[in-house]
Design brief:
Elements lengths: L12 H16 L15 H20 L16
Length: 79
């Protein structure tokens, strides 16, 4: 079609890593209205569950970041 151009977003691996880390950092920050007196989990099981929840939330946040198909992987495996 005439007049319609496809734009490709160019991004280096360092820029991509910075964007992903910034997104993860924002996702891990707590809202200002949370209770500041909340303590760490009392039992190892509760601590493990809290870590799993945090990892799940981080994974969901990272999944929301769109990565262009033209982005090169950091490592090339050859046989």
């Amino acid at each position: 079609m005439k007049g319609m151009e496809s734009t490709v977003m160019r991004m280096t691996r360092r820029q991509l890593a910075g964007a992903l880390l910034a997104g993860a950092a924002v996702a891990q920050t707590q809202p200002a209205d949370t209770d500041a007196t909340a303590s760490a989990p009392a039992t190892p099981e509760a601590e493990l569950q809290a870590a799993k929840e945090q990892n799940r939330h981080t994974a969901e946040s990272l999944a929301k970041v769109a990565i262009p198909m033209a982005t090169e992987p950091a490592v090339h495996f050859t046989a």
